[in-house]
Amino acid sequence: MIQQQQPMATLLLMLATTTHQTNARRNSAWSDSLYGRYEGSIEKFFSSLACALFFYKFGTFKGSSRTLWRNYFNKNKKKKHFRLIVYSDTDTTTTTTITDQNDSFSYNYMYDLIVIGGGSGGLKTAKTAADLGAKVALLDYVKPSTQGNTWKIGGTCVNVGCIPKKQMHYAAEMGEKIRQAINYGWKLPGLSDASDNLSSDMFNHFSHEKRSQYFDWNTLVQGVLNTRSGSNFVYKNELKKRKIDFFEALGQLQDAHTVKLTQNSNSSPLLLTSKFIVLAPGGRPYVPSHDEIPGALEHAITSDDLFSLQTPPGKTLIVGGGYIALECAGFLSGLGFDTSVMVRSQILRSGSFDREVVSHLQQSMSSEHFVKFLQPCIPKRIEKLETSNKKRVIYWNTLENREYSEEFDTVMFATGRYADVKGLNLDQVGIAYTKEGKIIVDQEERTNVPSIYALGDVIENGYNLELTPVAIQQGKYLAYRLFHPETNNKRYLVDYNFVPTTVFTPLEYGLVGYSEEKAEKEFGRENLVIYKKKFNILEHKIPEKSEKGFVKLICLKNENEKVIGLHYLGPQAAEVTQGFALAVKKGCTKEEFDDVIGIHPSNAEAFVYLELGVYEDKTCCG
Hints:
Layout: E1 2-4, E2 23-25, E3 33-41, H1 42-57, E4 69-72, E5 81-89, E6 96-99, E7 111-116, H2 120-131, E8 136-139, H3 155-160, H4 162-180, H5 198-205, H6 217-241, E9 245-247, E10 250-255, E11 258-262, E12 270-279, E13 283-285, H7 296-299, H8 303-306, E14 316-319, H9 323-334, E15 339-342, H10 355-367, E16 372-374, E17 377-384, E18 391-397, E19 402-408, E20 410-413, E21 417-419, H11 426-429, E22 439-440, E23 452-454, E24 459-460, H12 468-483, E25 501-503, E26 508-513, H13 516-523, E27 528-536, E28 548-556, E29 562-570, H14 573-585, H15 590-595
Parallel strand pairs: 3-4, 7-8, 7-12, 8-9, 12-23, 14-15, 14-20, 15-16, 22-24
Antiparallel strand pairs: 1-6, 2-6, 3-5, 10-11, 11-12, 13-21, 17-18, 18-19, 25-26, 26-29, 27-28, 28-29
Helix pairs in contact: 2-12, 4-6, 4-9
């Protein structure tokens, strides 16, 4: 180990043959350092050293400029090759340390692994690789949304996806529970001066029409942002603890082993090299262009903006019929905001979602949770009113062949997401991708360039499951395969069959496996046995809510009624579905479901009491 400190700058020279690799361990002052690298025969070494000393002496190397100096000479395989690395650091308090690791991973490159993208998949890849002894760099850069919003490390899930969405979902549920509290005997002071009217006042004050008057949007948003910043801090500490070099910078591929790093428009780029590169930049919401829908880019927001909105959304239109649109519509309506969803054809069109369950879900959102559906309709243009901040949406009803217009405080697009690969220089390196921009990978997440891998929302692998747990599993298994030589490669391949998920609408929808439509297409209607029924939700009994839950099992007749699809519509769907997912994945049969003694009273027990021809429970406890 060599340690050296100078009052104004540190110059470290390291020579190593190709058979004895020496690695630079950089401290936090790396971001203000400049490095140059020389590779060439020994007779060229001293001329390169003289150049380095000249530039160092006369101030060409500026720590804040982050300028890269690289000089490659022609290599001769018969001669020994040497590497010169020059560090210059203007921080007078910095000590730069070089450690000879002589490990098996870092042989000809600065890193064993460079990960581009600091979301769930990228973070898991980087941390697992570092835990296995690899030298890792992680790059994360967030392009501003169409409305200028940005965030720190953590990716979509923690910043503008799963976590803030679930927190707002919780907030909406609380409003409904407060309203139902009257039926359970609760009286909240302050809603009425007349104590005799407390109960009726509480019920009326927390009706959907008046609920937003007793809800503070900014308090909720601040809580969401506090959670976000706390997670950002934790992620950075986890990287620091593992000695992972973290750059808040844009990464662009230069070749199969080189990434150009640009931190801002005023800085010169750096070049980093690595044995392996993983692309995990994630996805971003799609917003129609001016030619497609005039005014959309200027006047509409996306999920990238909603969770940090500084003013209450008010009357809101959400364009789109996917799970993001429905989840956001559900919690906004639950918070008391007038909410509409504009759908071109039908909601939840993906083949994974069962049409019968979706029909029950939409009915629940309309009748019990006050979400209006404009269907089948498409927006034509969006105009901002001159006299207010309201937006006028002109849209076309394709069934009636008629144009309508309506004013909203907020318009949000949730019409799909695109792979955020622009700027990665995929063409320059020759990486294959689809016309939609998805990077084509094999079952090991490898692209057609052997040293470059991709994972998460940006990949095309035949499954395309854009789910946080899937990206995490991909990252963990990829790191095992790359940096755990004794691993049996086939053991660490992601199994994409029977992946559970949940849509966090007011009445939640959890599922794993086949929908009835998809199963019929693959196995034939004659080979299926379908068990389904509505069930009474116990917590709705006292408030006398008419809303019911719904469960469904799809079984293969010729395989002893093996369960290949499970669908649950009801409270706490994620908690219910997670456990049943293991049973479905392990191939349990309907008979084995029936052999399980249910937990009573519970909503989940509906699955172990399903019978053919019994569509709705009328009784309880037998």
